[in-house]
Design goal:
Blueprint (H helix, E strand, L loop, with lengths): L2 E6 L4 E7 L1 E6 L2 E5 L6 E5 L2 E7 L2 E15 L2 E11 L5 H20 L6 H28 L1
Parallel strand pairs: 1-8
Antiparallel strand pairs: 1-2, 3-4, 3-6, 5-7, 6-7, 7-8
Helix pairs in contact: 1-2
């Protein structure tokens, strides 16, 4: 018996297939979801979710996510998600360095911006940095 699992970001459907089990990083703890699970709605930690399909095990990063669990479907909505095997460590490190430079520059350049707009830019950069750091730590662990 299996359950449909979908991981969806604003840009694309990252994953969609029938699976045996999904292990989710819920904010209140890890949840193992099997077919016919009771309905649940949960916020997810920025972490890794694991999908089991027969003898295959897949790992996906999930950043700013929400899981809707129904007996016959698991839907993960996330700002960003990526199969761990697709993370390019070199590109991620380069991007992380660039975002950190932008953050430092933004913190020293604030005289030219209004406060609210500046704070939004800084928060967005911090979120991007956190996402890249998640990708790098996950790649190190699973690749």
């Amino acid at each position: 018996m299996s359950v449909l699992c979908e991981i969806v970001t604003p840009r694309k459907v990252v994953f969609s297939d029938n699976v045996d089990m999904v292990i989710l990083p819920g904010i209140d703890g890890t949840m193992a979801i099997l077919p016919n699970h009771a309905p649940v709605l949960s916020m997810l930690k920025d972490d890794v979710l694991t999908i089991k399909m027969g003898d295959r095990i897949l790992h996906y990063t999930v950043f700013k996510g929400l899981a809707e669990i129904q007996p016959d479907q698991i839907t993960i909505l996330a700002d960003d998600s990526e199969n761990v095997t697709e993370i390019n460590v070199t590109e991620a490190k380069d991007l992380l360095d660039e975002k950190r430079r932008q953050l430092v520059q933004g913190q020293t350049d604030r005289a030219n911006m209004d406060f609210a707009s500046h704070q939004e830019d800084i928060q967005a950069l911090r979120a991007e940095i956190a996402n890249i750091e998640l990708q790098l730590s996950t790649a190190k662990k699973y690749q």
